[in-house]
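About this split. The held-out portion is used to measure sequence recovery: a designer receives only the structure tokens and must propose an amino acid at every position. Recovery is the fraction of positions where the proposal matches the reference. Here is one held-out target exactly as it appears in the evaluation file.
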């Protein structure tokens, strides 16, 4: 990883560095961090001669040779100096909330417009709405392209950025053309490396776009989760949030095994924001507020919660696990209070150690 002295290399400097790495069979991939652009050497970057020649250039600060399976997402990466900003929030500085319906019902768009207004009122920063749905049962509603228009109209009406899941490259293309702000990679596709690469490539030059990467139902080691994020970041855009959402085997009674406790472990390994989804984790509306607060207690930067203006009129997961806007508003208020308590506790603990 090449760290330049200026915020970014000018075209002549980039050409000079590119010429050197090309001699050694490597390529340069710029990664646009919030603090400065860094330059990944793609290929075998271990050649000392190549490293010495680059380090000898007077506009190069240094070369990081982090021994990590995820050099960009690693806590020690220069990207750790940046902060992701979405919907007027700097993640890590204030509680960040994505909320909205599991699924947009294209036959009844008024529900989504009402939900959207209510999410804004409740204090959400990003509106979620499923356009295309990964359903276990092939005979249930699979989503509808028409819902994309409803999602973007809700965004225009509320001024909120929007999040929706993309399951393949057609969805990706349509979502980006429509102007979706946060692309969600669901639990079923978190290990689909072709899709991860395609998403990375598609947003490499779109710093305004972010990705919410869910933890796969079947993911064991956390390195596997962070490496999935690395696939996306490696194309130039590190705007990635990691989203624990419950795994299998399930905890008897919950939809999945709640995994918000992975938050501090992830934070030890990576600088990425952790945005926990309590809805798919516990799978029942009445359990969601406690699971959301548990995530905050574990140090999550944000929450992704399913909420519907009238859950019983929803489709997909909404009837069973969406909370009402009233419950959402209360949960956000309590989560903010807990956030402040946890921050204070962290400061006190740090002061005791120092
Ligand atoms: C969803 O967010 O509605 C969804 C299907 O999530 P997951 O991929 O976590 O199951
Ligand atoms: Mn859902």
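Reference sequence for scoring:
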């Amino acid at each position: 990883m090449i760290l330049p002295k200026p915020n970014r290399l000018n075209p002549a400097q980039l050409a000079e560095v590119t010429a050197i790495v090309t001699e050694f069979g490597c390529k340069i991939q710029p990664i646009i961090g919030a603090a400065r652009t860094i330059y990944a050497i793609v290929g075998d970057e271990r050649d000392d001669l190549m490293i010495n020649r680059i380090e000898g250039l007077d506009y190069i600060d240094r070369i990081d040779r982090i021994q990590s399976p995820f050099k960009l997402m690693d806590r020690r990466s220069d990207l750790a100096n940046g902060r992701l900003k979405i919907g007027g929030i700097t993640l890590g500085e204030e509680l960040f909330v994505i909320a909205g319906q599991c699924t947009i019902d294209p036959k009844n768009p008024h529900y989504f417009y009402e939900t959207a207004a209510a999410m804004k009122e409740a204090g959400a920063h990003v509106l979620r709405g499923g356009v295309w749905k990964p359903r276990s049962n092939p005979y249930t509603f699979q989503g509808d392209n028409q819902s994309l228009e409803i999602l973007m109209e809700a965004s225009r009406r509320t001024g909120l950025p929007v999040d929706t899941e993309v399951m393949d490259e057609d969805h990706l293309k349509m979502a980006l053309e429509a102007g979706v702000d946060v692309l969600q990679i669901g639990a079923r596709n978190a290990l689909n490396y072709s899709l991860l690469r395609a998403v990375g490539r598609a947003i490499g030059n779109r710093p305004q776009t972010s990705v919410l990467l869910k933890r796969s139902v079947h993911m064991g080691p956390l390195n596997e989760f962070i490496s999935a994020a690395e696939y996306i970041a490696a194309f130039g855009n590190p705007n990635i949030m990691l989203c624990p959402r419950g795994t299998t085997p399930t905890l008897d009674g919950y939809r999945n095994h709640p995994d918000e406790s992975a938050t501090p472990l992830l934070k030890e390994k990576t600088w990425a924001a952790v945005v926990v989804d309590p809805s798919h984790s516990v799978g029942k509306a009445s359990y969601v507020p406690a699971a959301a607060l548990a995530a905050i207690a574990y140090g999550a930067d944000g929450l992704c919660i399913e909420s519907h203006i009238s859950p019983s009129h929803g489709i997909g997961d909404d009837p069973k696990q969406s909370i009402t806007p009233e419950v959402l508003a209360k949960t956000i208020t309590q989560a903010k209070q807990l956030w402040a308590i946890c921050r204070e506790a962290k400061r006190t603990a740090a002061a005791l150690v120092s």
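Annotator remark: The mean pLDDT is 96.
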